[in-house]
Structures are given as structure tokens and as C-alpha cells.
Automatic annotation (TrEMBL):
Top-level division of the source organism's lineage: Bacteria
Matching InterPro entries: HIT-like, HIT-like_sf, HIT_Hint
Coiled-coil intervals: none
SUPFAM superfamilies in the cross-refs: HIT-like
Official protein name in the record: HIT domain-containing protein
Length: 143
């Protein structure tokens, strides 16, 4: 049985995700967003499903679609940035809305080899760097 959050009958992006990320593209199920932290190439997939907070809130077809979109985001980061490792996580401890982090990691990044959360202060993109990063991602998405 799907658990719905009270008062959430339609999809809305959580305010914290809206504040911390920038739009990149829309996939069939999810919005693809860029985390506003230039320390890492860091994407966030947010399924457009009202009230979803856990993977089990999606039906089997939606879970397969999300898996395909995680694959697409992972390949995008791998092709565009050639990372040493890809980190994929769906935590949601602070933001309950279902979202999946896909992060390109490098042995030279400021948190390596630890998880990125809480290691170093986020470095927001400058307006120019943000446009360049989103354009790069969209070029690789079209390729």
C-alpha cells in the first residue's frame, strides 16, 4: 500500500531541493537536477510522484523506470567527467521527498574517499560556471 504524505496530492519539488539544485532536464519519470556544489559533478533525480518518500512508494514499473534513469544519469557523469567512482544514494534523512543522488567522485576531490555529506563546505556555482556545467550536461545528454 502506498503511503501518502498528508496534503500532498500533487507533485511539488521540496523547497530544500529547489534551493539546493538547478534544473538540467526532464526524464520520463524524474526531473534531473544539478546540486549547487561545484566541488563535485553531482546530479539529483527527483521522481515526479506526489507523496513518494521511499523507493517502495513507486510501483514496479516506476521503480524500473527510475533504475533506467539512474543508469542514464550515471552514464552521463561517467561520459562527461570520467570519474574514478560513481556514488548513488537515496537517503532522504533531511529531505523526505524521494530523490536519488548520483555523484562523480575523484581521488582528488575534497572529500575523497569519505562520503560527500558534511566533509567540506559546498561551493556554489558562479552564474557563468553554472551555465557552462548545465550546457555540458545537456550536450552529453543529446549525444
Amino acid at each position: 500500500m502506498k503511503r501518502k504524505q498528508a496534503g500532498h496530492d500533487r507533485y511539488e519539488l521540496h523547497p530544500q531541493l529547489a534551493a539546493d539544485t538547478h534544473p538540467v532536464a526532464s526524464f520520463a519519470l524524474s526531473d534531473l537536477r544539478l546540486m549547487d556544489d561545484s566541488n563535485y559533478p553531482w546530479l539529483v533525480l527527483v521522481p515526479r510522484m506526489a507523496g513518494a518518500s521511499e523507493l517502495v512508494d513507486l510501483d514496479p514499473m516506476q521503480r524500473r523506470e527510475l533504475g533506467d534513469e539512474i543508469d542514464q544519469a550515471s552514464r552521463l557523469l561517467r561520459d562527461a567527467f570520467v570519474p574514478f567512482k560513481l556514488n548513488v544514494a537515496a537517503l532522504g534523512n533531511l529531505v523526505p521527498q524521494l530523490h536519488v543522488h548520483v555523484i562523480a567522485r575523484f581521488e582528488s576531490d575534497p572529500a575523497w574517499p569519505a562520503p560527500v555529506w558534511g566533509r567540506v563546505a559546498a561551493r556554489p556555482y558562479s552564474p557563468e560556471a553554472l551555465v557552462e556545467r548545465v550546457n555540458t550536461l545537456n550536450e552529453f545528454l543529446r549525444a
